[in-house]
Amino acid sequence: MTFASIRTIKRMVLGGLCMAALVSSTGASPVSAAPERARKLHAVKECSEYFGNAGDWCTIAVSNVKQMPVGSKFLYSQAMGVPAGLLDSNVVLDAGDGNRAQGRCTLELATQLGLCTFSEGTGQLTGFRARIEVSCPGDGIVCALEGTYSFNRDED
Fold it and tell me: Which of 38, 69, 116, 123 is deepest in the core (most CB within 10 A)?
């Protein structure tokens, strides 16, 4: 082993010790190398109770996500048409019993295509993250939801 390689090893060890000291002194957690595992989301929402007003909702009729069971509601806080031609609203996914996730949905009214994203949650939806493509063909009452979801359990 050469003098240069011994010096390199000492620097690596010293750097690791400094990082460990920094983490323990600040209370910071080291970043995990394991990414959140994204899973496929397939659901259908039924919107016969949605009339385009703030406070209206759609109900989940089919879902492959156990934390978003049938009967869960998408509650919209903004009215449709502001801005013109869009539904662009904050949304709460309410799965009951304090299990809620906050997000945003935007739907192009002319095409009935849109996107919903979720990034916060409580109860069983703590750490819920989702990116959901929305398609509401025909009369817009029944919408297909297709996307991915994961849980960031660092929030537990």
Answer: 116
